[in-house]
Amino acid sequence: MNLNHLIILLFVLANFQSISQDSIHFYNKAIVSAKVSEININDIKYRRFDNLNGPQYTVNKAEVHYIKFE
User: Which residues have a Cβ under 8 Å from the Cβ of 65 and sit 6 or more positions away?
Assistant: First the structure.
């Protein structure tokens, strides 16, 4: 019985890890749920959280107010 509880606990913890997302807050009040993949000197690269296998977007850092990392 303890092994079953341990397996269930591991699945629950793995699920919490998989739903972590970042929030990109822009100066124009827009908020994008995303997974930030790279931050360079001039730009930020991310994938939208609703399509993590989709295209990688690039935005200029001057347009971003802040990023809330999860």
Answer: 25, 26, 27
